[in-house]
Amino acid sequence: MNSSTPPAKPAPRRSLKPLYAILLMSMAPVVAALLVYFNPSLRPGESTNYGTLYQPQRPVPPAADLPLATLDGQPFDLATLKGRWVLATADGGACPESCARKLFVIRNTHASQGKNVERAVRVWFITDDAPVPQKVLDAYRGTIMVRAQPEALARYLLDASQPSLDGPLWIIDPLGNLILHYPPETDPIRFRKDVGRLIYNSRIG
Question: Within a domain: residue 17?
Fold first, then answer.
């Protein structure tokens, strides 16, 4: 009598769902890190910039609309600074302590740019005819100091959020566009980070 062994039943196919779940769980941190890296606004407590953007940006006005003069009375055209980042402030020539603080902030921010220092320049718009104290001239040598008509300067620099010229700081990009303004009593560390990020990531200027 012949006996035959019944054919073995095929093993049931295992579901791949647990494998997919493990794979997704292992990839989730990587995906999240990439999203945060490429979108700084997603980082808690951090934004892409500290300053306030002008919308739209404002091109440097012609010299006839924004007449400027050096301390020795020579005409100065702000457009000659195109190609460099401009860190700017404005105040009266007597330069009280609040003015000296702003000059200090933009000088130190400029100096902190290391190999990129030549890509930026600093400007002080002097809004009256008062003489500049010698100690200020000595302390902030290298700052471009130009006298400006306050009404013309205000039309260029101010918007509704800025009540006066003697508080904020401003940044003009190498294309000659006024792009950012900063509040009175600007935080020097956050300002320096903004400037460093702009210059480092920029392909212009």
Answer: no
